[in-house]
Amino acid sequence: MITPEGATTVSVAVREIHEHRDLLLQLAQRDVRVRYKQAAMGFAWAILTPLLVIGAGTLLRLAVASMAGVQLDRSEVGSLALKAFPWAFFAGAIGFAVQSITGNLTLVTKVYFPRAVLPLGSVLAQLFDLAIGCLALVLLLPFLGAQLTPALLWAPLLLVLLVCLTAGVGVFLACANLFFRDVKYITQVMLTFGVFFTPVLFDATAFGARGVRPLMMNPLSPLFEGLRLSIMEGHNLLEPLTVLAKAGPVVAWEPWFLAYSAAWSIGGLLFALVLFQRTQFLFAEYV
Questions:
Q1: What element of type H or E holds 251?
Q2: Which of 98, 159, 196, 239 is at a distance of 20 to 30 A from 188, taking alpha carbons?
Q3: What CA–CA distance (Å, rounded) separates 116 from 285?
Q4: What is the end-to-end Cα distance of the chain in Å, rounded?
Q5: Does the predicted TM-score (pTM) go above 0.85?
Q6: How large is the average pLDDT for residues 5-19?
C-alpha cells in the first residue's frame, strides 16, 4: 500500500527516511552479510577492485614514463591508490543501487515504506568496503608520499560530498531503472568506461591547460583531484593552484571546482529524493 500523503517536499522525504532509519540499517547489514557470506576471500573483496585499478593505472603510467625517459615517482602510485578506493566505492554502490528496487519487488508490492531506503541501503552497505579501503590507505599512504599537513582536514568533507553524490545518482538510477529496464545495462557500460572520463588513472593536469576545465565538469573530478591535492600535495583547496608543465602553466585547482561539485552532490541528492517521492506511487504499475 502506498500512503496517499503524496510526500513531495525535501523535508517530508528526509523525515520519512529518518523515521525508517532502522530499516535502512537492516537493509545495509543484510547486503553486507549476503556479500561476504561463504566468500572464500572474505573482506579481501573490499580491496580487490581498487587494487586492480591501481595495477592498471601503474602500468599505464609506467608506459608513459618509459616513453618520456623518466622514472615513475612513488607519489604517483599514492595518487592512484588515493583515487582508486573512492572510484571503487562509487562504481560498486551505483551497480547495486540501480537494481535495488527491481531486486526487491516482493517487498515493494506488499508493505509501505519509503522506497528510497532501498538504493540508500545499497550505498550504505558499500560504505563498509570504503571504510576497509580507508584503513588500508591510512597504513600505506605515509610510504607513498602523503604529507601530514592541515590540508588533510579537507578529506572528510570530500568523502561526505562523494557519498551524497553517489546516493543521489543511485536513487535517481534506481527509480529510472524501474520505468526503463535497460537503464541497468547503460549504467554498467558507463561504469566500465567512466574510469577513463574521470581523473582516476591519471591526473587532470595531464590534459594540459585546455583539458582541465572540461574534465572538471564531471562532478566526481573535483572530489578526486581535491583528495589528491590536499593529501598528497598538502594544498589548501580554498586557494587556486597552478603547476608548470612542459607546454606551460596549467591550472590544477580553482576553489569554484569544489563549490561546483558540492552543488551537484547536495542538490543532486535532494532532487533525486523529491523525484523519487513524487513517482513512487507509480511503482506498483511497473513492477
A1: strand 248-253
A2: 159
A3: 17
A4: 14
A5: yes
A6: 76
